[in-house]
Amino acid sequence: MLQGKRILLVVAGGIAAYKSLELVRRLRERGAAVRAILTRSGAEFVTPLSLSALTEDKVYSELFDLTDEQEMGHIQLSRDADLLVVAPATADLLAKMAHGRADDLASTALLATDKPVLAAPAMNVRMWEHPATQANLETLKQRGILFTGPNEGAMACGEFGPGRMAEPAEILAAIETALAASSRLAGRRVLVTSGPTHEAIDPVRYIANRSSGKQGHAIARALAGLGAETHLVTGPVALPDPPGVSVTHVESAEEMLAACRALLPVEAAVCAAAVADWKVESRAGEKLKKDGSAAPALVLAPNPDILASLSEAGNQRPSLVVGFAAETQSLIENAKAKLARKGCDWILANDVAPASGTFGGEENEIHLVSAQGVEDWPRMSKEAVARRLAERIADHFEGGKAA
Ligand code: PMT
Q1: Cystine design at 360: which of 127, 147, 212, 299 (Cβ 3.0–4.6 Å)?
Q2: Cβ(328)–Cβ(334) below 8 Å
Q3: What average pLDDT does the chain have?
Q4: CA of 378 to the centre of ligand 1 (A)
């Protein structure tokens, strides 16, 4: 199970660092290749020599060590790994991770990675229970960081409670689970649409909508996180391209349709983009002038329906086509009608009335509508919606739970 897997282990400064040596030994025994980053405070607890002897590799410590940067940039370190494991994960390192800090090699590698990260926290019970640590933990969980432990027990500082790092056997089991999860969609090619489209009125003006792309981009990230070869076709958004995802930038619905068609065949398609239903038929070749005459009347024409077109793609039809329904009234009724009309397999219905805060917001409340019925998901972050959807897609391909 671990044969040939590549683990990048970050050892931060805590008394539990000695257990990480045992973890390395067990990982190596099972055929995994381990590369280690030792923080400056970690080196107070274990020596680079012991880690190096066990990993049979050099130990990486300094961000600006010129040799390291030439031979093995910090980005390359995480790029070469299947999983990053932080053990022990101190309160300080968790805080850096939660706040996106990058002031040493460990925090920089953790910020630069697009690989799954598993953390084994270890700290004094009061530090663990402090609201700041708990808030950082929540932030990291929301972003998909995996955790094992801490365990409860007597601590080196003489206190008792949660804060002891999980035992090497427990971390090993969590590593196996994380690696299995991160490859649930390995070898599967998927397509996601995201963001709004811009429909030109003239060379400088356009019609658009309020989609930020947050939901669609999160779905692309989550699918890539499960190992899928993920292709994202996005309208204009102010978001960075998700790491590990191939991205095509488009403006109009017609461009989005052409980009999606060019990416077929795919096994699953998720249409989260807020595609304009109409384009401007009376589009002007030059900037419209406000020259005292009456305001121009826009003549609209229907845009192609990308979701319906993917659902009808004949032998190129993805085996799972997922659409959204953005509604301000009669949510479920309208979503059911869209499921039937557009011929897709699942519709994720969401309320986009201004009071819902769905457009541009951080959270969403989904109702998954399929031939099997309606499943109500609780309100959660768009990241969590994306992870839940990605897991459901993996279930579908593994012949598990139907929607
Ligand atoms: O981007 P965010 O700010 O994070 O907001 C997320 C979201 C609200 C945009 C997203 O969750 C969502 O609901 N996306 C679909 C928006 C939409 O266009 O819904 P619709 O009900 O109008 O369309 C139904 C489905 O048909 C959608 O899957 C849509 O992508 C698709 N469609 C619509 C029109 C068209 N011409 N082509 C399409 O493919």
Answers
A1: 212
A2: no
A3: 94
A4: 20
Structure tokens at 387: 């992870």
Please state the length of the chain. 403
The atom number, within ligand 1, closest to the CA of 273 reads 30
Express each pLDDT in 17-71 by its tens digit. 999 999 999 999 999 999 999 999 999 999 999 999 999 999 999 877 656 666 5
Domain-ending residue, one of 155, 181, 207 = 181
User: Is 1 part of a structural domain of the chain?
Assistant: no
Report CA(216)–ligand 1 centroid distance (Å). Answer: 9
Per-residue burial over 232-242, b = 16 or more CB atoms within 10 Å of its CB, e = otherwise: bbbbebeeeeb
Does the pLDDT at position 72 exceed 70? no
Range 256-275 average pLDDT: 98
Q: What is the reported pTM? A: 0.84
58 and 106 inside one domain: yes
Residue 347 CA: distances (Å) to CA of 303, 334, 339 = 20, 10, 6
Query: Which CATH number covers residue 380?
Result: 3.40.50.10300
In this prediction, residue 403 has a pLDDT band, given cuts at 50, 70 and 90, of low
Q: Residue 233: which domain range?
A: 189-398
If you take atom 6 of ligand 1, which residue's CA is the nearest one? Answer: 215
For the segment 174-195, what is each residue's pLDDT rounded down to a tens digit? 999 999 888 899 999 999 999 9
Establish whether residue 234 lines the binding site of ligand 1, counting it when its CB lies within 6 angstroms of any ligand atom.
Answer: no
Residue 215 Cβ < 6 Å to ligand 1: yes
Shared domain for 173 and 263, answered yes or no, is: no
